[in-house]
Structure formats: C-alpha cells, structure tokens
Amino acid sequence: MLPLAGSLLGTEWLHGQSQSISNTVLEPGARNFFKELGLRTFINAAGTYTSMTGSLMHKEVTSAISYGATEYVNLDELHDKVGERIAELLGCEYATVSSGAFGAMTIGVAGVMAGMDNKKVEQLPDVTGLKHEVIVQESHNIGYTHALINAGAKIINVKNTRELEKAINNKTAMLWFLNASTEIGSIKHEEFVALGKKHGIPTFIDCAADVPPVENLFKFTKLGFDLVCFSGGKGIRGPQSAGLLLGKRKYIEAARLHTPPRGATIGRGMKVNKEEVLGMLVALELYLQRDHAKEWKMWEAQIKLISDSAKSVKGVETEIHVPPHANHVPSLKVRWDQNIIKMTASEARNKLKNGHPSIETVGSEKEIGITTWMMEPGQERQVASRLKEVLSNA
Ligand SMILES: *Cc1c(COP(=O)(O)O)cnc(C)c1O
Question: By alpha-carbon position, which residue is closest to atom 5 of ligand 1?
C-alpha cells in the first residue's frame, strides 16, 4: 500500500514540507518487522493514543535517533545542552526532555518537594518532613495525578478558590492544573497562577495533549506557571516515550536530580537516553517550523471529505467540531438513524478495524469519532470510501 498516492490536496503537501512519512514505505529488501511479528498495522483515524503507539515520526526525527545511536556522550552534558537549546527555542527559563508528560510530572513535583538537597532526593517517595501536598481542582483530577502520587505527593481536591485557599497550609508543595479540564474547572489559568504567587507556592500545568496550537508551547510559561509539561509523541510527533518539562530553572534543575545517571532516585526508571533526547529536539524544531495554518486547512479539507462521503448515505448525520483544549484539531462525529442503518456505531467501528486497510476510530454505541491529523496524506480518501461502504452495506 502506498498511502501517499492520490493525496486529496495534490502533491504540494508531499514536497512543500516534511508532511509525508516516507519511511512507512519499505525499502526493497527491508524487514517488515510488524508483519514478521504477526501484528496488524492500521490507518489511525482516532488520534494520539498511547494504546495505538501515539504518532508517527518524520524522517528527520528518525534520522536524529539513528545518529544518536552511533556515538557516546556524557548523559548529563547532553541533557544540559539540549535543555538550554529547547529553552531558547521556546523562550522560557529552562527545559528538559522527560520520559513523556507523565514522567515530567513525576520528576517535576519531586524537584519541587526535594529541592537541591541530595538527602531529600534519595528520601523520596518518603515525604517525612517535606512539603508534599498538591492542591488540584476536583474536575482536573482525572487520573494523571498518579504521576504526582508516584513521587510521594498527596493530592488535595478542591472545588473553587475559597476551598483552595483554605486548603493551603505549611505542607502545601504545589498547585497542579490540567489544561484539558480548563472549561470545567471553576478556577481558570490567570487566577490559578495568581493564587500560587499570592501564597508563594509553585504552579504546574499539564499540557500533554495541548499542541496544536503551537502558541501553547510559549503561552503557559509566559503566563507565569512555574512548570509546564507536554507529551513528545502527540502533536509534536517526537518519540512517544519522550516529553518536555519547561519552566523555572530552579525547579527543573531540581527535577533533574531525580533522573539518570543518578541511581538512588524515584526517577531512575524514567531514563531518557541520547536517542530520545535528539529525537525530541529535532521533532520540536520541525514542529516550530511547520506551516500550521496550511496544515489546519488540510485537516479541515480531509474532515470535510470524510463527512461528505458519510453523509451521502441515507440516514447518516455528521458533526464537525474542534475540542477547545487538548486534541484541538478538526474532528468528526458520525451518527445515524439505527432504524435505517441497522448497525451500532461499535459494530461499524469493528468493521472498519477488521477490514482492509484496517482503520482505527474512537466512539461509542451511538457515534464514530474521527480525526485526520495522525493520518498519512491520502489515507483520508481510504477512510472516506471505507466508511461509506460499511454504512451502505449495513
Ligand atoms: C497523554 C497525557 C498524559 C501522559 O503523557 P505521556 O506523554 O504519554 O506520558 C498526561 N496528561 C494528559 C492530559 C494526557 O493527555
């Protein structure tokens, strides 16, 4: 299968920027590892999901990873230099490449709790004598706070500003915000940061799935959050096992004390070696250089194509939407009158998954959810025609 053939918007997408993943097309004689292993590969119409192995890396990124595998360097010196370079690119005080956004949260809060005291560093996750309470809005506590608990932190849930201020005491270490929950939490960014400053408590925002828009890479450190994290393997399309921790130098230097090569630490298992460090840096450079407006137009056109194709089947209804925070990309919901098309959405999703090519989507019993941002150019046409076929044949 040549996914690049017949791109919706013509070949400018293939040549104008590093949009196509030429390494998905096997060189003659190359090993097809997934086939050897008996694994199903698929068109990703779902989005950036860890279970689906995240995103695909551009050739420049995989080249950087291959390069990294060919020489030795000092691990700390590498992290120092790349941290400086990323901070320069993103206009923040300091940065480090972490083991995903989740790893960034664990070492970030560990840095806040233990500071630069090596004894305290080795003491974690035992928090005896340390400030270790992290205040979180209840609506923001959807599971990722486990990254903080891993370091020994205790989560204190609050509903609003009054409860937050009441919860602050001499054990409070940090205030944590989940950007994806911005709409449903009563305290918004500016007020949250102001509360942290008022009480002298550092603030951390989880922005794991929050590019696009690219501006978010700059926005939250400027807004005054002390620490900000992003996933490396979502919108930035770096290594899925990497991430970014951005913000105040004093906290990031403290966070680094929990990472390899240091051994007696909670972060020893969150190693980020040279391959991922270089891959992350190059993915970020590429992401910053990309023509984001053009890419957005392409996604809109792809979503419209799939929507129109689905709607051409009698009884089908579609909705095009853009989530306000996290996975902020043109997205499609496909629903139908199940009296006319006698199939649940789960059944249709299974047909798409088990067909040729295999197509992964998200959804429920009532609707199919589709995004195109993790597809290769041209795959939107395959998805459009398969979806129509599945719905017509029900
Ligand atoms: C994906 C995600 C994480 C975990 O990020 P990794 O990079 O996979 O470690 C954390 N928080 C949110 C909101 C996420 O979407």
Answer: 101
